[in-house]
Amino acid sequence: MEKKTFERPVIKKVQIGMPSKFGLKSEYAPIKEIDGIPVKNLIEQYGSPLYVISEQTIRETYTEAYKAFSTRYPKVQFAWSYKTNYLDAVCKIFHQEGSWAEVVSGFEYEKALNNGVPGNKIIFNGPYKTREDLIKAIENNSFIHIDHYDEYYLLIDLAEELNIRPKVAVRINMDTGIYPQWSRFGFNYENGEAWEIIQRILISNKLDLVGLHCHIGTYIMVPWAYANAMYKLIDLFLGVEKKYNKHLQYIDIGGGFASKNTLKGAYLPGTDTCPTFDQYADAITSVIINSSISIEHLPVLILETGRALIDDAGYLLGTIHATKRLPDGKNSLITDLGVNLLFTSFWYDHKITPAQEFGPYTEETVVYGPLCMNIDVIREYVQLPPLKKGDHFVISRIGAYNMTQWMQFITYRPNVVLIDTNKNTHIIRKAETINNFNNLEQTPEHLKKIE
Amino acid sequence: MNKKLCIAVSGLNATDNPGPGIPVARSLRESEAFSDAKIIGLAYENLEPGIYMPGIVNKTYQVPYPSVGSENLLQRIEYIHEQENIQVIIPNFDAELHAFITNEKRLNDKGIATFLPTLQQYEERHKANLPAFGKKHNVLVPKSITIASANDIHKIRKEFVYPVLIKGKFYDAYVAFNEEQALMHFNKISSKWGVPVIVQEFIRGTEVNVIALGDGKGNTYAAVPMRKLYITDKGKAWSGISIDDDKLLKLTYQIIDSTKWRGGMELELIKTNDNKYYLLEINPRIPAWVYFAVGVGQNIPETLVKLALNMPAEPFTTYNVGTMFIRYSWDLIVPMEQFQILSTTGELEKN
Amino acid sequence: MKLKPKLAISDSGFIFDPSTGESYSLNEEGLIIVQFLKEGKNEEEIKEHFLNEYDIDETTFSRSYLDFISMLKHFNLIEHE
Questions:
Q1: Does A4 touch chain C (CB under 8 A)?
Q2: In chain C, % of residues over pLDDT 90
């Protein structure tokens, strides 16, 4: 006779205000496999915790996003936001799909070059570009988006020194009607600073002004904010046409599209409230199409969307290390992955799904990571079925930022595996070992002996 | 109409912050057209009084909170539909409206009708969008701003003179007389309903309310203005009186005509001493005092169901002025077994 | 280990404690343990049942059993001896 699956016995007080147990069943259908590969096998082969990236999902999401824009507007160019996820394999999928690179540091710039991206398909953003970074970008004919006046003057100097006319765009910040207003990057629209820098560039003629750029914020849930931004950018675009008879090549609307993750403090889940690519595309493109820019001078629309393109493709697999009853009777789980690997748990209520079958019964649970630090909490409160030591679980939608903002704190970063479109698995970043760190450290002679 | 209809209603929480489910069910029970309908209760919590009250719902099903995602809610509704063959759903819980509005077609395809505002109507009347709404539909509204962080409390001082109203996205409104109180209310509201939180100019005057029903084409099918006589400490009407106010009715017709509002609604307005009407809020659903409208001659739930099912319906044009309602509490005796059955099976038959 | 004597336990996994008015719900495994305890079975007998019927090793069961009993104690459902 086959034995029954054992679930931890659980008792809980019946309270008002508690969602009924059956109602939660469908919320927690187990995730037993990713792209057809059992979670169990992935962990057996590559260890736990484990990052898994689905190439299929990346390509499908990119296609969906590209279609949303390209069916509405004739000139669309995506530029992959390196800071969102700069694992080479991930970047190369986007480059194969046709994305340029959008980088915000000398390190990311080198990564893009190493990935084979031609210099004239790299957009260099950000408030901190060193003299060396800028020289490299100018010599490679990349697009430099100016953030502040000091950078502008440095570029003027370098243009003379190198005798090259750098291709630049101006980063613009503005009030789009949303909170918070990002005002620290670029030049302000409302106070006239943006128009002033544009004029200086055009009058001095030492830099080749080719575009306008803005990036209104992050996790923007309201597509109309992009429409407001576009109105203001087009106002500047038309101003340049009128006064200088010059047609800028592109408008870069930046990124900031939301993903389906649920922000802490939000009442409705992200899956219900996240706008679609079509909604964003509609808001953005209709403003350009309906503007008075003539058809032959329509600018290329550049998008630097990161999160919305990669979040769904990333999974973090983990294992229950221990269960522990807290003094107030609440159940807690100690897992092998914490805020060191899931930086985004500081602002999302990540969805945690068991990787094996379970009953309809759930209990209030706190999910901890492995760090010996009080703040290492993945979920402060979540209804989960009674998991036990050794059970696996999957955290979905973690592709954005976690593989760049991860912390090497008291332990190693684990393997990152890519599942390709033929369901083959590849390690794309090896788990760290003590040697990685020994290689970097040097001990002075007098400290070598501790006796 | 011989076929017995099945109508589902939610919001059975007739507590000190009552939902409209019980009065909606009662209105249908007392209607001419649907007195023999089977009424299904949809309950989020196991102590919602309507589950246990005699003569209100025939059967209750527990449903998952909208905060776990509309997909779960919809699947549960579809399961209930398989058991009961629901023809109409009247959602009465603010937080669930988004899910029902965005899934109108999916429900229609299964043979379930709703009669709700469109997503655009629902979005544009959001408290946070009130200034734009006022401009677009030519209605006076109090000045308001939204804040998403406690760090922005200081902005209130720049834009307003205290006192101000601090309001949540879905529910709750408190008066703040100074910055400390504003911060306290902000924290309370944002922890419960999330951000943004709305800060609104405090308009002095008398609060008046209108319950109304629009057909989605600009026609008003029902409208009853009421002044609250007594308000609980949660700001809910405990007693009210129907009033004769043509200007207010005209404003209601104008709003419904301009928005092409579909479904039930409640307008909350302040009438100032110089006879101006400021729109404070549009509740995009039937309010909890709907039975009062029935009591003065306008059975709004009955007409709403007729409109939802494309049955012929006549707009109401009159109501009794000077009639009052007084709410009361009532202790219901409930056998433990009923609570137990509901809590373990999620369903309770009640005939 | 004895349960409070007057607890009402239903087959659907619902416990009502008449002395406090509190109600509790159980999953299948919890219900089985509570029913065994009510019949006066001891830990060994209960363990034997689970090891026979369920796909579970002794350590994991004992660990879960202890945790469950601690919750019964937490809710004051165990008689003080």
A1: yes
A2: 59
Which residues numbered 14-53 in C keep a CB inside 8 Å of some CB on B? 14, 16, 23, 25
d(CA A52, CA A33): 11
Domain ranges, ordered by start, for chain C? 8-74
Distance between first and last Cα of chain C: 8
Tokens read off for B120: 């655009």
Residue B331 burial (CB count, 10 A)? 5
| Chain B: closest CA distance from residue C64 (Å) | 23
B144 HSE (CA, 13 A, CB side) = 29
Domains and CATH numbers, chain A: 24-53+313-434 (2.40.37.10), 55-311 (3.20.20.10)
Phi, psi angles (nearest 5°) of residue B197: -110, 145
CB A223 within 8 A of CB A280: yes
Q: Which residue has the tokens 């390690």?
A: A427
The answer to whether A128 touches A121, Cβ cutoff 8 Å, is: no
B85-122 per-position pLDDT tens digit = 999 999 998 889 999 999 999 999 999 999 999 999 99
Q: Write the DSSP string, B115-147.
A: ----HHHHHHTSGGGHHHHHHHHT-----EEEE
Helix H, strand E, coil C: the string for B227-256 is EEEEECCCCCEEEEEECCCHHHHHHHHHHH
Model confidence pLDDT, tens digit, residues A105-115? 999 999 999 99
Determine the distance in angstroms separating the CA of B295 from the nearest CA of chain A, rounded to an integer. Answer: 32
In which element (H, E) is residue A107 found?
helix A106-114
Residues 372-401, chain A, touching C (beta carbon < 8 A): 386, 388-389
Residues of B in contact with C23 (CB under 8 A): 339-340, 343
Instruction: Say whether B169 and A267 touch across the interface (CB within 8 A).
Output: yes
Nearest CA in chain B to A361: B344
Give the one of A16, A17, A179 whose C-beta lies nearest to B148's C-beta: A179
> Is pLDDT of A386 > 70?
yes
> Who among C23, C29, C53 is closest to A9 (CB)?
C29
DSSP letter assigned to residue C40? T
Interface predicted TM-score of the whole assembly (ipTM), two decimals: 0.90
Domains with residue ranges and CATH for chain B: 6-114+331-349 (3.40.50.20), 143-201 (3.30.1490.20)
Rounded to the nearest angstrom, the minimum Cα separation between C15 and chain B is 9
Chain A contact for C3 (CB, 8 A cutoff) = no
Strands (E), A330-387: 331-335, 352-354, 363-368, 377-384
Q: Please write the tens of the pLDDT for every residue from A319-333.
A: 999 999 998 888 999
Phi, psi at A195, each rounded to 5°: -65, -35
**A264: closest CA of chain B, how far (Å):** 9
Q: Which of B68, B98, B102 sits opposite A19 (nearest CB)?
A: B68
The model's pLDDT over A398-427, given as tens digits with 9 standing for 90+, comes to 999 999 999 999 999 999 999 999 999 999
**pLDDT by residue (tens digit) across A163-197?**
999 999 999 999 987 767 788 899 999 999 999 99
**pLDDT of A21 higher than 80:** no
Q: Do A11 and C60 touch (CB under 8 A)?
A: no
Pick the residue from chain B with its C-alpha nearest to A22.
Answer: B346
- Whole-angstrom distance, CA of residue A155 vs CA of residue A168: 9
pLDDT recorded at residue B71: 86
Chain B residues 276-315 with CB within 8 Å of chain A: none
